[in-house]
Design brief:
Glucose Permease (Domain IIA), 9% helix, Immunoglobulin-like, elongated
Length: 497
């Protein structure tokens, strides 16, 4: 068995990760601005692939994502430059099988892009570092591969700086984005999993803890599928170009989520486990004997890069109302052929809506505010600290009412979900007369009685609190009773505004 390290060059390290990130900042992200012929004849039509960009690979060592495409041919087939440029490297990364030529698009020792052609017979290489080549120039011929029927050129699009190039280049775009014809009449196919379903669910970022098909779903979940494709070759399975999923019920279809598109910059050794599941139950394989791709659909932050932080992403089922839904998954090849599968799932999440209500003029006690969800018929009343809790709420969009006599009420429409069940509110006192404790728009003897009851007999507090602060000194005490008696019976000054 031979270790297939076609164009991996030197092993990626954290140091290299910093270098390649710097290169990304120093040059624009790849955009396919050119269309090129295939590097072997016939130049103008799609050719069979043995491995493709981003495919799971493991040949005895650590797994990685294949950073190019392997175009199948025969021993001795000629390999030609697909674009004009300058020879930046002629080297091998692992003895005779791994000689390669890199042709960049600048003659200077600056960061630039170029095409890589690997697995050439060293004695056949026609160019040297520093040479200028034109599109269509012969570079060399394919070396005979030790695995029967796997003679191929490894073709990649790379970025590097300096001269000559060292082989720790960055793989910045899928070469299929450039090639003139990528016709592929064979669509990808989802494979039935060992659980009897096309999808396996498990709690986000856990291992070997799979739910059974038909289980009610809750919380933050990941899910995986098994899918494979054939790209012009009858024997070698590859992974699809794109994987996506969509979630819907009878009344609404949510936006489709692209799980991964194997198109852009590939940190091939660092992040293979972001996309591919490899455990005792679902063991991804990619070698000369077995091709099994268990692909995680939910590890995406919806940008174009496959990054370590994508593992924190999940399918947050608690964002959606409880009920029955359809989960549809799509696998698409570079030509646009696709396979679709779907299954019915039931979501059931419950949580407690909780928080604090503060009345700005009542530092002593925040009790008595009613917080309700009228659509559910649920409510709670705040305690002295202003805290409330409404249990057993399912995700959804609800009206939240916050009401306390003498204060401006709060009525909001909220998307309540498992991830953020807390809501705090602040209530302001309504406009009114100081001393008008019974809210009859007059300050008279009945208000004195109410104030005496509160201060001396633990009667109901003034609502809002400033109504009882007749002399406006910030507290409600017997001095406010004296002030009110003087105003009502002895022609004293009115309560301040």
């Amino acid at each position: 068995m031979y270790v297939h390290t076609a164009a991996t060059g030197l092993s990626i390290t954290r140091v290299r990760g910093l270098i390649v990130l710097a290169l990304l900042w120093c040059a624009p992200l790849c955009v396919s601005a050119q269309t090129v012929n295939w590097p072997m004849k016939p130049f103008d039509q799609a050719q069979p692939l043995g491995n493709t960009y981003g495919e799971y690979q493991q040949y005895g060592g650590s797994p990685y994502m294949h950073p190019g495409i392997d175009i199948m041919g025969a021993e001795g087939d000629s390999v030609f430059a697909v674009a004009s440029g300058f020879v930046k490297a002629v080297l091998t990364t692992s003895a005779s099988l791994h000689w390669r030529v890199a042709v960049g698009d600048s003659a200077d020792a600056v960061i630039c892009n170029g095409f890589l052609y690997a697995h050439l017979e060293s004695s056949s290489i026609q160019v040297s570092e520093g040479d200028t080549v034109r599109a269509g120039d012969l570079l060399g011929v394919l070396i005979g591969w030790p695995i029967a029927e796997f003679h191929h050129v490894h073709f990649a699009y790379i970025r590097q700086s300096g001269f000559p190039w060292s082989p720790d280049w960055m793989f910045i775009e899928n070469p299929l984005e450039f090639l003139v014809d990528v016709t592929d009449t064979t669509r990808p196919e989802f494979q039935m999993l060992s659980n009897g379903s096309y999808v396996a669910f498990y709690a986000n970022n856990t291992t070997d803890s799979y739910l059974d098909p038909g289980d009610t779903l809750s919380g933050a979940l990941d899910f995986l599928v098994s899918v494979r494709d054939i790209a012009g070759h009858p024997s070698w399975y590859v992974q699809p170009y794109q994987l996506a999923y969509q979630f819907r019920n009878d009344s609404i279809s949510y936006l489709s989520v692209v799980s991964v598109t194997f198109r852009d910059t590939l940190f091939y050794a660092d992040n293979v486990n972001i996309i591919y599941r490899d455990d005792a139950v679902y063991d991804s394989k990619g070698d000369y004997d077995y091709r099994e791709f268990y692909m995680i659909c939910t590890n995406t932050d919806r940008d174009a890069l496959i990054e370590e932080g994508d593992a924190d992403s999940a399918w947050f089922t608690g964002d959606y109302p409880n009920g029955t839904y359809w989960l549809s998954i799509q696998a698409i090849d570079r030509y646009g052929s696709r396979d679709d599968e779907s299954l019915q799932v039931v979501l059931e999440n419950y949580f407690t809506v909780q928080g604090k209500v503060t009345m700005t003029d009542r530092p002593g006690s925040q009790a008595g505010t009613v917080v309700s969800l009228p659509q559910l018929g649920l409510s709670d009343t705040t305690d002295a600290a202003g805290d409330y809790a409404i249990p057993h709420v399912g995700p959804g969009i609800y009206t939240l009412r916050v009401i306390h006599d003498g204060y401006d009420s709060s009525v909001t429409t909220e998307h309540l979900r498992v991830r953020d069940p807390s809501r705090d509110f602040e209530l302001l006192p309504v406009a009114g007369l100081r001393g008008d404790l019974n809210h009859d728009d007059a300050v008279d003897a009945s208000d004195i009685i109410a104030l005496v009851s509160y201060v001396f007999k633990s009667g109901p507090p003034p609502e809002p609190a400033f109504i009882g602060d007749v002399n406006a000194d910030g507290t409600t005490t017997s001095s406010d009773i004296i002030y009110l008696v003087a105003y009502v019976f002895k022609g004293g000054p009115p309560p301040p505004l």
